[in-house]
Amino acid sequence: MTKAIENEALQRFTERIALIKSYEEALALLYWDLRTGAPRKGMEVRSEAIGQLSGQSFKLSTAPELGEWLAALEAPDTYKTLTETQQRLVTETRKDYDRSVKIPPKLYQEYVVLTSQAESMWEEAKAKSDYASFEPYLDKIIGYTNQFIELWGVKGTRYDTLLDMYEPGMTTAQLDRVFGGLREKLVPLSAAIAASPHQPDTGFLKQDYPKDAQKQFSKFILEQMGFDFGAGRLDESVHPFATGLSPGDVRITTRYLADDVTSALFGTIHEGGHALYEQNIGNDLIGTTLATGTSMGIHESQSRFWENVIGRSKSFWSRYYGDLQRQFPGQLEVPAEDFYRATNVVRPSLIRIEADELTYNLHIIIRYEIEKLIFNEGVKASELPALWNAKYKEYLGIEPEHDGEGVLQDVHWSGGAFGYFPSYSLGNMYAAQFTDTLERALPNVWELVEAGNLIPIKDWLTDKIYRFGKLRTPSELIEGITGKPLDPDYLVAYLKKKYTDIYKL
Amino acid sequence: MTKAIENEALQRFTERIALIKSYEEALALLYWDLRTGAPRKGMEVRSEAIGQLSGQSFKLSTAPELGEWLAALEAPDTYKTLTETQQRLVTETRKDYDRSVKIPPKLYQEYVVLTSQAESMWEEAKAKSDYASFEPYLDKIIGYTNQFIELWGVKGTRYDTLLDMYEPGMTTAQLDRVFGGLREKLVPLSAAIAASPHQPDTGFLKQDYPKDAQKQFSKFILEQMGFDFGAGRLDESVHPFATGLSPGDVRITTRYLADDVTSALFGTIHEGGHALYEQNIGNDLIGTTLATGTSMGIHESQSRFWENVIGRSKSFWSRYYGDLQRQFPGQLEVPAEDFYRATNVVRPSLIRIEADELTYNLHIIIRYEIEKLIFNEGVKASELPALWNAKYKEYLGIEPEHDGEGVLQDVHWSGGAFGYFPSYSLGNMYAAQFTDTLERALPNVWELVEAGNLIPIKDWLTDKIYRFGKLRTPSELIEGITGKPLDPDYLVAYLKKKYTDIYKL
C-alpha cells in the first residue's frame, strides 16, 4: 500500500471519529435535557430527533468506507507506524464496527426511539407505581435485545453476549463463580452483623433536612473531591446519573429527599466519582471516542471508591462531620462516631441505591439472576414483578409493598441496559483492590483524608486510571496497577475489617 | 413522469425535511445550553460539535438528490396534486436550497464554529467592556458575510442581499423610505414630549427588587398570557432570547436586574410574545421546517405587541398593578396611573432593549445605518465603536461611557445576524396595524385586558397568525388580516394617541 493511501485513510478515519464524537456530545445533551427539565409536551418530537440523530451517527459508524479505512490501517506495516492512541482507536473502532454492522440501521433507530420514550414512561410509571403502563415498553425492549443477540451471535450463553458489551470478556460462568464466592463469604459476615448486640442507632438520621442546605453541602463535598465546576454542573433528576459530554463538560444529577440527608449526600459523592474519571481524561484523547471510561466496571469502581471507601470512612467524617453539623444547625447533635456508624449500618432494604455496602451485592445478584432468566430461559416482562418480589424475600427477607419500590426502581432496563448491573459489584471488587495498592503508594492516605486533603488521592487515580480513558483495558489497569488479576477477596477483607470495628464482632 | 417516481420523490423529500428538522432541534438545544449554563471549559469542544452537526445538516440541505426531488415535485402536473402544506414546503425548501448550494460546506462549517465561539467571547467582552478582545471575531464574521454576499449575488445593494434573508423582499430603498417617514413624524412628537411640563416621575422604580420575587412575577405574567409551562420553560441568560425547539418545547430566557423591576418584566413579556407564536403553530406543521415564524418582522410584531401594546397599556396595569404591589410589599406605593406613566416615559437612552417605544426606532435606525456602511461602504470592525458613539450623540444626544453600554450591547453581530435589526421596527409597524384590526374584531378588547382575560387575544392571534407558521408570507398575513399593505402611519397614530394622553400634549 502506498504512503499516500495510508495517509488518506488515517486522515479520513480521524475525521470520522471526530464527527461520531460530535454526535455523541449532542445526543448526551439531548438525553441529559430530557431527564433534567425538558418540557413534557416536547417529548414525542424530542424522541423522534434522538432517533434520527442516533440513526445518522449509526450510519457513520457502520459505513462501508469506515471498514475500508480500518482495513487499511490494520495492515501490519501501517499499524506499527501509528501512535499508541491511534492504534487503540483502530482496535476499539473495529470492535464496535463489527458489532454494529450486524444491526440494520432502521432496526437500531426504532430501538433508540423506543428506549427514549420508555425512559420517560418509566419515570411516570415509577412515580405512580404502575408497572402495567411500563410493561409493554419493557416487553418490546426485551424483544429488540433478543433480536440483537441473534444478530451478534451467541458465544457461551445468550446473556454472555450482553455482558461483554459492558465488561469486555466477562461471562456468565465467571460471574457465577465470582458472585458465588462473594455470597459464600458475605452471608456469614452478614449473619454475624445481625447477631451483634452493637447495632448503630440510625433514628436521628430521619429528620427534615432543608433541600437548599443539602444542595449546598453536596456542592461543597464535590469541591473537596476536586470536582471542577468550571468543567461541569450539578442538577436534579429522579434517578441520579453522571454524563460526560467532554472532559470540559461533565454533568451529574442528584435527588434530594426531604427526610433523609444521606441519600443525596452519598448519591452525589457516587456520581462525583464517575465525574472525576470523566473530567480527568488526558487532553490527547479529547475529541476522540477514547475520551471516556474504559468499562462500566472500572467506571463503577470509581463511583464506589469515592462513595464507600472514602465517603463512608471514619477518617472522612472525622474531618467533615463538623461542616455537616453547621449546615444543619441543631439537627445533628450525636458524636461523629455515631454518625459514621449510622451511615454504615448493614440492614436488608428494598432500594438498591440506598443499600449498604454489604447487602448491595445481593441486590446486584438478584438483578443478575433475573437478567439471566430473561435471556437464557425466556422469562417474560409480565413475570418480572412476581419474580422480583420472590427473590427479595428469599435473599433479603423482605418484600416490596408496590412496584415503585420493587421492579420499577431502576432506570437501567428502560434504556435497554441489560448486562449492566454486574458492573456495580465488579466496581466494588476493583475498588477494594485499587485501595490496597493506594494504601501502599500513599502510606499517609488516611491522614490526608482526616486533613480534608483529598486532592493527592484524586491525583493518584488520575495518574493511574483517569488520564488513560479507553487507552487501557480493565484487565490492563487492574494488573498494571495492583500487580494481580481481579480477586474478590480484597473486597471481602475490606468489608470484614470495617464491620468488625463497627459491630465489634 | 410516472406516479411511482412522483410518490418516491414526495416520500423521500418528506423524510429529508423531518431529518433536517431533527438537526435543527438538536442545534437549538446545543445553543440554548451554551447560553444558559454550559460549563465554560467545554466551550471549545461544544463549538466543534456545533460546527460538525451544522455541517452535516447543511450537507443534507444542499444535497444533489434534494435538488432532484424538488425538481420532480415542482413539475406542474405533480405540484397541483400536493397539499397546501406540501406546496409551501417545496417553495420554501427551494428558496433555501438555491441560497445554500452557493456556499461551500467547508466555508459554512468554519463560519458556524466561528460564530459559536464569537457569541461566548462577546458575552465576556461585554461584561468586561473589552471591545478589543471581540473585534477580531467581528472582523472575521464580516469577512465571511462579504464572501457569502458575493456567492449569493448582489441585487440592488450588497446589504439588500442580507435584508432579504430576514424579511423576504425587503430592500434598502424601501427601508430608507419607511424609516425616513417614521423619523420625520416621530421627531416632532419626541420634541413635543420633551417640552411637556407633565414629565412622569420614575424615581420610585429604582429600588432593590428581590430576584426571586421578580422571577415569580415573570412566571405569573407568562401564565396570564397563556404561555404553556408544560410546553416550555423560563431560564436566565445575559441577553434574553426565545427559542422554539418544537411547538411542545419553547424556551425563553430573561435577565433580572436587582435595581430595576421593569427590565426583566418587560423582557419576559417580550420573549413571551415570541414564545406564544412558536407554541401555537398548527399540529399539521410539527416536524416540518414550516413549524416556525414566517419572518423576523412578523415574529417581532408579536413580541412587541405583547410587550408594548398590551404590557405597557393602561388597561393592563389597571388589572395587574395590585399583583405587582403585593409581590413587592411596601415598595410600590404610588398609584397605578403613576406606574403606567413611569413605564412609558420617553427619554433618550443608551441601551436598545431598555429603550422606550418611541426612541427605540432611533436605536434601530443607527444599527441599520451602520450595517449599510459596513456592507455597502466597506467600513471596518475597528471603526465601529467611534461610529457608534458618534451616531448616538447625533440622534439621541447621548454617548456611551464604555463599549459595554455601546457597540457591545447586542448579541446579534456576534452571531452574524446582519440585516436582522430592521425587523424590530418592522415589528412595531406590523403590531400597530394588527392592533387596529384586533380592536375592530374584538370591540371589548381593552375590557378583556382590564379583566385579566388575555386568552381571547392569544386565541385571535393564533387563529390569524400563529397556527400558520410559515404557511403564509408576511405580506399575505398583513394584507389578509388588515386588508392593507404595511403602512407605518398606524404606528405613528398609535404612539401619538398614547403619548398625547401621558404627556397631556
TrEMBL record, chains A, B:
Pfam families: Peptidase_M32 (PF02074). Its EC number is 3.4.17.19. Keywords: Carboxypeptidase, Hydrolase, Metal-binding, Metalloprotease, Protease. The keyword Cytoplasm does not apply. GO terms for molecular function: carboxypeptidase activity. The keyword Methyltransferase does not apply. It catalyses: Release of a C-terminal amino acid with broad specificity, except for -Pro. Gene3D superfamilies: 1.10.1370.30. Belongs to the peptidase M32 family. This is Metal-dependent carboxypeptidase. It comes from Paenibacillus artemisiicola.
